[in-house]
Amino acid sequence: MDNCLFCKIARGEIPSGKVYEDDELFAFHDINPARPVHILVIPRRHITSLATVSEADIPLLGRMLAVANRLAAENGSPDGFRVIINSGRVGQQEVQHLHAHVVGGPDPVGPMLKRA
Ligand code: 5GP
Ligand code: ZN
């Protein structure tokens, strides 16, 4: 995807605070962190959303979560963390390239969602 922001970040065309990369995944600091630790884990390959994944993506999705665990521990959130994947219109996903937010820090991150 030529014009996708996170594809460009994964290709190194736009600078980011990279924390991890391998042949399938790329991880970097969120530009507007919501907690002391706020890392985004993305697939290098363009996948629009968790709302559009297929069965073939299962191993990749598993790897995203396993890497999230390690990155949280290594980057200042050793006692747990939260993974958030906003998906589609209802999930209020803003960037249309699948990404897992890994948030944490020294203190608990707060309630999961405000009850409507
Ligand atoms: P969403 O709402 O799609 O789940 O989250 C998108 C996230 O991407 C937001 O937390 C936002 O701060 C982050 N973000 C948007 N543009 C950039 C950017 O250019 N660089 C980085 N590092 N993060 C970005
Ligand atoms: Zn993309």
Give the structure's gist in a few sentences:
The protein has 116 residues and is α+β, with helices and mostly antiparallel strands. It is built from two helices and five strands; from the N terminus they run αβββαββ. The site of zinc ion has 6 residues, from helix 1.
Descriptive report:
The chain is α+β, with helices and mostly antiparallel strands and 116 residues long. The chain has a single domain, classed as HIT family, subunit A (2-Layer Sandwich). It is 20% helix and 21% strand. The chain has two helices and five strands. It has helices at residues 5-10, 58-74; strands at residues 18-21, 25-29, 37-43, 82-84, 100-104. Strands 1-2-3-5-4 form a five-stranded antiparallel β-sheet, covered by helices on one side. β2 (25-29) and β3 form a beta hairpin. It is globular, with a radius of gyration of 14 Å. The termini are far apart. The mean pLDDT is 97. The structure holds guanosine-5'-monophosphate and zinc ion (ZN).
Keywords:
116 residues; alpha+beta; HIT family, subunit A; five-stranded antiparallel beta sheet; 2 helices; globular; binds guanosine-5'-monophosphate; binds zinc ion
Reconstruct the topology from this structure.
Elements: H1 5-10, E1 18-21, E2 25-29, E3 37-43, H2 58-74, E4 82-84, E5 100-104
Antiparallel strand pairs: 1-2, 2-3, 3-5, 4-5
Guanosine-5'-monophosphate binds at residues 5, 16, 28-32, 86, 93-95.
